[in-house]
Amino acid sequence: MQSDLLEEAIIFGNKVELRSVKQNDFELLFRWLNDPEVYRWWGGLPIDSDTVQQKYLGLRRPQVEGYIIEVTGIPIGYAQRHQSGDSEGSIDLFLVPEMRGRGYGGDAVRALVEYLTQVEGWKRIAVDPEQENNLAQRFWQKLGFVETEEITSEGNLVLIYKGSSPQNSDGESL
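^ thats the sequence. predicted structure below, dont judge the formating
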């Protein structure tokens, strides 16, 4: 079955692995999405259990796919991809606060971008950080995303991936 295959998807980075979310990730996601340091830039409000169940545990597949970001088997964050056309879509992620600033987020993005462009054949990848989130904007720009004139319905900026190949932290192509 296709859903079984999606349950087992793993994307490898240099430091992290991204695995598809599973039903038993509910408690973890619920806790993360109700941490003020996470929801501050991820919707702005805590998320109730029904919303976690409906939006983050694979019920929107195949259009939206969620991943748990892990380092040596330890969950440290969440990433998602939202396919909006045959070869395009958007991505987003968050790391738990204590794991930020260690290169894990950049590695997760590089791995996901490489997978989407090289395996899935995506030609356009967008992100939409909030306009007030300067740290996120700089993060995405360092990874090859450039600002566009587009603004989402929520008022967020749209940045598009322009790199020809994801790069590691030393600027070398992967």
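Helices lie at 2-7, 26-33, 36-39, 49-56, 104-119, 134-142.
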